[in-house]
Fold this sequence. Notes:
The chain is mainly beta and 211 residues long. The chain is built from one helix and eight strands. Strand 6 and strand 7 (167-182) form a beta hairpin. It has one domain (6-210): Porin.
Amino acid sequence: MVQINKWIIGIVFVILITNVLYSDDGWRVYAGVGLTQPVGPLHEWFNNGSQFHFSVGQVLDNGWLLEGLIEHARYNKENLSGYPKDKLDLYLEHVAIWASGKYDLYCWSSVSYYLAIAGGPLYWKGIRGEIEANESLAIPYIDKKVLEEWNMGFRAGFGSTISFGPVGVDALLTYRFVVGNLWPTMQEYIELDGVNGFHFFNIDLGLFYTF
């Protein structure tokens, strides 16, 4: 994981844990992992990646589960074609600190189906590795390019939970959008088009504990 503003994440984590320790019942702690698939122009750069989520939240009187969510996703499987395939290192990751809401649409016994939305700030970093010179193709050496920034994003989708007392399993399908840009590389034989906005479909599976 790249270096990010650890102070911000630490402060958010302390606030969440403090609220849990000094609040009424109805809190939920969740941890999960998932697969994430870039779509649109970003899929021409990257194949599927992996992600991790951790959240703490409370069920409100209106039925919404409101959570503080930390999400980390990473993509390091390039999906290039032609000359640069297997010759160019690509990397993208983000860390999100989001507010998340979940609302049950239908419940039956210990099973529930819910709507999920989340959004807020995130830090992302993208790396296009160096391009080695190739005299026979008149390709010059091109230095590594790193882009990174704090920006915004959101996700929305549907999920289902199965509860076994205070412990349960959570499965979630979402679409995610991240504000960001990857610059093009228009050198002949490389020809990486730029990407404006990052789009993903995601599937996550996790465990939660309610107390």
